[in-house]
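Example 3.2
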Amino acid sequence: MEIVSQLLPFVFLIAIMYFVIIRPQQQQAKKHKEMLDALVKGDKVVTSGGLIVEIKKVEEHFFAVKFNNDVEGRLVKDAVARKYEDEA
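Structure, written as tokens:
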């Protein structure tokens, strides 16, 4: 019984860390992955570097993107921070 009473605070600490730190990070990562999977040609995204680009082609690990009228390139899917929503 003495061992259980000594381990109980550690169990509570681990449970609190799970619900405060680990679980929200897992949910955020899941939501970000779902957003990446839902992106299609023509969507505008903001990169982790702050660039706003338009998706021209969806590939397995990359997006073919258009920076402006003349510049096109490839973007790693992990570099997409969020979908760009026009504020008009």
